[in-house]
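Worked example

This section walks through a single chain of length 265. The input is the sequence exactly as stored; nothing has been trimmed or padded.
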Amino acid sequence: MRRMYLIAGVIFLATGLIFYGCAKKLPPEAELQAAREALQRAKQAGAEIFEEYKLAEKYLKEAESLVEEKKYDDARTKAIISKEFSELALKKLEEAKREEEGKIRLVEREPEFKETKLPSPFEIKGINPDDVIGTATLGKGYILRQFEKVYFDFDSAAIKEEYKEILKKNAEIARRILDENPKIKLLIEGHCDERGTSEYNIELGWRRANAIKRYLTLLGIPEDRIVVVSFGKEFPEFPCPPPHCYSEEKWSKNRRGVFAITAKD
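Given that input, the structure is written out below as tokens.
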């Protein structure tokens, strides 16, 4: 009898824990709202003509459907991807205008990065402004000379053994800067080579950036101090679009994770 009570108690406890775990998951309202706002901005700007806008609409609808099914993690991912495509549509629109007029500036439209103004390198403790060798994609952060890139195999988001030591070094550099600057965060960009669809590569770049993020958290970088973004195949470091170009050497350099410091809230 005592054994039966014990088993019943274990089952009751396990059921309670499962219920509690499920109860903790909430709909990704912030991500959905950001995706809707980005799509609306793209529409108002006239970016509906681009394939990226249609993909943004598609992913947002999928995200909203997944929320109805209470698949919140998948919905969150789809909403973020939708927002990325809206931003890419806006970028294409700006590039088209710039080609026509020759003087249109690319406008940064991502609200999260506008909430906190990126400080001057001279205002960031623990870095030498001379070590800033460039800005991150779309000007979202500063790239430091000390940060090394991480490269991936074709169609893979797995961290290769040869880059784990580089990740440790990058983590040490980032930890020192983050400790001295409470408002600074580490930005991880995921990039792909130019094979495959834009849709697929946005997801692949997202997986790559998050794989780096997970590894850095194991090395002691707080999760809430890391920002990830995927640019898919849109910004190759060594352009090589098939079928006109076929160079594994160039493609391998485009499958990368890039590190920068940013001030995103």
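What to look for: The beta strands are 132-135, 142-144, 150-151, 185-191, 226-232, 256-262.
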